[in-house]
Design brief:
This protein is of the alpha+beta class. It is built from eleven helices and 15 strands. Strand 6, helix 6 and strand 7 form a beta-alpha-beta unit. The longest helix is centred in the middle third of the chain and has 17 residues. The chain binds S-adenosylmethionine.
Length: about 350
């Protein structure tokens, strides 16, 4: 068993200020336990004047490095050897370059660290936590905006599905993806077209298939992104039910000014959750998990948890470990819940 020291990425201080080490420690506690890597609880310690997260009693360095590489805010990992720190190389696992996530800048964008954290603790609660370090999966963001979650899913090798009621967002995302794929000379197909049911147009839909290279294209090994312009309650009419390994979304914040958009007010966040939760739950595979982040000034965690339970999801016991302040009008928290795996009893 070995001990490791982890530096938190300095850039994350911009996002969470002093909360960054605490949030990353909670994420790693949960994801390490899900992968059976658990040693002692992750704790904070200063070494030579710098703050590190200490991970103790770990048996498998390669798996730890893979997990840390996909975590939301890790910067560098070291093995503790006596008084010395030995650098541990983090594997480069991302399928696509990070500009897929960082180029787009717009009002209302969810930061990528929070989105990664939410995705990770959601996968940890699913029946396939091994997806934390790789593999193929389907992920749905039911309020996807301009695709931060979908882009992070693509970088992990997943397929991304999204819904957003704001056509301008989906159009902007469509243009961005096409330009980005062309700039990187990645083979791809792209269409933005009406979806028709019973001779009626029910939505506009973006469909992209992206290949890492020509060989992947020839063998048909692409990754899909599909995004519909629609109300999220209609998601079961747009994508196949019971197919998603994870449903991950950053809900509307319900604030009308500053960095967040007015149309967030079109429907109150609590009404949206009550109306849409049954559809979101139906999208999950048995054993799949749902993770939502939200503003506790407009939506209470207990209400989100109740909405999950009413549709038969089991709420993960994360409590308020991820609660943190964003600004004067937003205090963020998250709820994760899973659909019982086939054969297990519902909550
Ligand atoms: C906090 S933003 C998500 C931003 C996204 N994660 C990103 O980084 O681009 C919430 C999104 O919910 C969308 N939304 C609000 N009500 C909706 C509804 N009823 N159906 C679908 N989308 C909705 C808004 O248009 C907005 O894009």
């Amino acid at each position: 068993m070995s001990d490791y020291a982890l530096l938190v990425a300095p850039s994350v201080n911009r996002v969470y200020a002093a909360d960054a080490p605490r949030l990353l420690a909670a994420e790693l506690d949960i994801t390490m336990a899900a992968l059976g890597l658990a040693g002692d609880a992750v704790r904070l310690e200063a070494i030579a004047g710098l703050d590190y997260l200490l991970l103790s009693g770990i048996g498998d360095e390669a798996r730890l490095a893979a997990l840390v590489a996909s975590s939301s805010a890790a910067y560098a990992l070291f093995a503790r050897e006596g008084a010395l720190l030995r650098p541990v190389e983090l594997p480069a696992t991302a399928r696509f370059s990070d500009d897929l996530v960082t180029i787009q800048k717009y009002t209302g964008k969810t930061n990528e660290q929070l989105t990664t954290l939410l995705m990770n603790v959601t996968l940890a609660a699913s029946a396939r936590p091994q997806l934390l370090t790789g593999g193929r999966a389907k992920l749905l963001d039911p309020v996807c905006g301009r695709g931060t979650t979908l882009n992070l899913a693509l970088r992990r090798g997943f397929d991304g599905y999204g819904v957003d009621v704001d056509r301008k967002d989906v159009e902007a995302y469509s243009v961005f993806l096409k330009t980005w794929a062309r700039t990187h000379r990645l083979p791809h197909t792209h269409s933005f077209a009406p979806v028709r049911r019973h001779k009626k147009t029910i939505a506009q839909r973006l469909d992209v298939e992206l290949f890492t290279d020509r060989a992947a294209q020839r063998s048909g090994h692409g990754q899909r992104v599909a995004v519909a312009v629609a109300d999220t309650t209609a998601v079961t009419e747009l994508f196949a039910e019971g197919t998603m390994d994870a449903v991950v979304g950053d809900l509307p914040y319900g604030v009308a000014h500053g960095a967040h958009r007015g149309h967030d007010l079109d429907r109150r966040a609590d009404d949206l959750v009550a109306a849409a939760m049954p559809s979101w739950a139906r999208m999950l595979k048995p054993g799949g998990a749902l993770g939502l982040s939200f503003n506790t000034k407009t939506l209470a965690r207990a209400d989100v948890e109740d909405a999950c339970r009413r549709v038969g999801l089991q709420v993960a016991p994360y409590g308020d470990r991820f609660a943190h302040r964003v600004d004067a009008s937003i205090a963020r928290d998250l709820v994760v819940a899973s659909r019982p795996a086939a054969g297990s009893a519902a909550a």
